[in-house]
Design goal:
about 15% strand, Rossmann fold
Length: about 350
């Protein structure tokens, strides 16, 4: 009788756990691998061309051996890396935990997520193509995609590939997404930075500060904003004849250099939007948002983007929500981003055969 009672209690507890949702949530698998970036070879920064990738495989990946999945390529922000987003380093967001929760709840269909470590000598690649930092655009759009399609059970079609990112990664999403609709069909930008040129923000003090940085030690000691400018200039105004940093400032001795400024403008998505309208119309879905207390200029820039896309009749989703640059990113991914990709990527090809 005691044995029967003990077994009965155990079974009841298990049943209660399952029915109440207290049982262990099915968790995905996070893999950390290295991918050699041929596109990054020869970069003048001296950054490694073997880049860390963090890959999230949903819980069913192990048990459904014939099932194929869409992939979302997620681009992290300035001074971040893949380890911070995927739980290896304590951070303000834990992407795998969010994915586990949403997929287990059934609020979004399961998909693969992958993020590359785009940290560099200047703390960010800007996901651009530069002799100084390397061809990050090519690395993401071609090498990462080819790697994922040959090593994992993906649905290897543009209609099943999404591109998303936060801050610098939001910029990279817009930049790469508008250039490669043949690779990615749906894009989502969280608080995208640098949609507009930043030359007008240079004060006399900032010019003096930038020109005073002569060594990497000086760079490491400077403030966040100055570092961001260095990373941007390395990506957009490279100069192989200008050591030790191998880029040009858009001014000298307090005077503007129009030729260098033109290079920066040429990399600002809002300045070149008209040239990519055909590509943007080819995208299946596009979304973006920002906090109302975001970094100055970001919310304003996506309002302009919203108006420009509307002018061309390009369907998109857009929202300014209560929050800062980072305060609600996890919540936005949980409530908006995953639903966006679940609704817009093609999942039908993954059925077991």
């Amino acid at each position: 009788m005691k044995i029967f009672t003990a077994v009965s209690i155990t079974l009841l507890c298990v049943a209660f756990s399952i029915s109440s949702g207290y049982s262990q949530t099915a968790k995905g698998t996070v893999l950390h691998v290295k991918l050699h970036g041929k596109s990054l070879e020869g970069n003048l920064d001296g950054d490694s061309t073997d880049r860390n990738l963090s890959i999230y495989l949903p819980a069913s990946y192990k048990t459904s051996s014939k099932r194929h999945y869409p992939v979302v390529y997620f681009l992290h922000g300035f001074t971040d890396n893949d380890s911070k987003w995927y739980g290896l380093t304590k951070h303000w967001v834990n992407l795998p935990a969010i994915l586990d929760t949403v997929f287990a709840s059934g609020k979004a269909k399961e998909m693969i997520f992958v993020t590359a470590d785009a940290d560099t000598r200047f703390r960010g690649s800007m996901y651009s193509n530069s002799i100084t930092t390397g061809n990050w655009e090519g690395f993401v759009a071609h090498e990462m995609v080819a790697y994922m399609d040959t090593h994992y059970r993906t649905i290897a079609k543009a209609s099943s590939r999404g591109l998303a990112g936060h801050s610098m990664g939001g910029y990279g999403t817009m930049r790469i997404g508008e250039r490669h609709p043949e690779v990615f069909s749906s894009i989502y930008m969280l608080s995208p930075a640098s949609l507009t040129p930043f030359m007008e923000t240079f004060s006399a003090d900032q010019m003096v500060k930038l020109e005073s940085i002569k060594t990497i030690t000086d760079f490491n000691k400077t403030d966040f904003g100055t570092k961001y400018m260095f990373a941007s200039l390395a990506a957009w105004a490279p100069d192989l004849n200008n050591p030790p940093f191998y880029f040009d400032l858009p001014f000298k001795d307090g005077k503007a250099l129009p030729a260098i400024q033109a290079k920066i403008i040429a990399n600002a998505p809002l300045a070149t939007l008209d040239q990519y309208i055909t590509n943007l119309k080819a995208l299946h879905a596009m979304g973006f948002d920002a906090g109302d207390k975001d970094i100055p200029g970001i919310a304003a820039s996506i309002k302009v983007l919203d108006a420009e896309l509307a002018k061309y009749g390009i369907k998109h989703s857009f929202e300014i929500y209560p929050g800062t640059h980072t305060s609600r990113i996890g919540q936005r991914i949980n409530q908006k981003v995953l639903a966006f990709f679940s609704d817009n990527l093609v999942f039908s090809d993954y059925a077991a055969k």
